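Input sequence (412 aa), recorded before submission:
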Amino acid sequence: MVDILLPERLGGDSRGPAPSAAPEPAGPPPGEATAVAPELPAGVTALRLLTLLVTSREAPADSPPLRVAIDRQDGRTRVAVVGASAPELVSVLCEPDGVARWDPPVGAVPPTGYQYQPYPRVTLDPAPGAAPWRPVRLPDRSGAAWPGAAAGVDRILVEGPVDALRGLRLLHHRDRVDADLAARLRRWSGTADGPPDAVVLVLSGPASTAESEFLTALRSPGGDGFSPVTIGALREGTAATAGSQQQLRSMCDAVVDWRAAPGGGAAIEAALRAQVRAWAGVMTARWALRALAACLAAGQLDDWFARAVEAAVAGAHEVAELDLLQALQGRRIRLPRGHDDALRLLGAHGLESRSRLGLAGDAGSDQVAQAASRALLFWRTQSMAPDAGPAGRGACALLVRTCERLLTGGAD
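Predicted structure, token format:
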């Protein structure tokens, strides 16, 4: 993980160099550019390039994509919770049994973010122009008492010792759920925290027209970054017709139940753990790659950085595999044959080569090679199948490259 502080000239509070191993000079020194350039396709990662860009004079000032990518270096995936019943679900997920509620006093700015800390703490995110981030340690470890200095802040971040929040930052959006909210969640600067990695839509019944439009817009092509993982959360016992359930499942990556009781969010936690937290490292790299690609598309990079970004995009096989996995799970791409095998091959049931190939954990290297060869032959055939369509054939071509990496031992 690369820890990056945003320099003052980009709106941050770092007065010195960022604490990273990246060199400080503005771009490669004269005479080294020709030495570095041939190595770019082999090993310059998106995170390394992000560090180089921020610590050099090449970083575009006030760039929303760079701000989002830098913010995501904390290793926490962002999960937006929306819907009329979202406050109840947030309470279920964020409050350990026996701890006082995290409700703000009347008139105070409500909390918008929750994340893990070993002790209760409130962090105030001030209005523009004020000194950044004021953490407030709460003396009473059994609960939270809101500070009186909440006026004049844009957001409040509540941090508590709740294991369900490890590796996550839960963002509660109180906006009306509609296509406009979906459009803002898909933009680099649409919200204060940038596009989320996942969205939990809390439903009290069949999805309304506005909620259906929200889900459709959220998963549509286009937008900044990438389509977030979408989880539909139905209150346990909610009456819904078979047709409405089927429609909801066609618009979400997962549909799970929850109840307003201690432990009532276990199914949601499991879905987030499997589809978001397990991929935290790849998602961090993906944000860096998307931000760099956005800067490249806007013509904000010099030739050296442009070549480096193109090389990083070409070599980011893990990011491409995650994109395809989420597209298959969300049914944005459909394969006529081998759908479940494709999910497994992309790491849905484990990232180790034996898990990807459906083998036992003690399978020998010869068995791994044989299984990878069979999978390679199958996906090569599928990549030329006319009924797969352009998107399906492109997906099969990526699966071919995954099999080739498994054969050479490069996927573990």
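Checked by second reader. Residues 1-43 have pLDDT under 50 and may be disordered.
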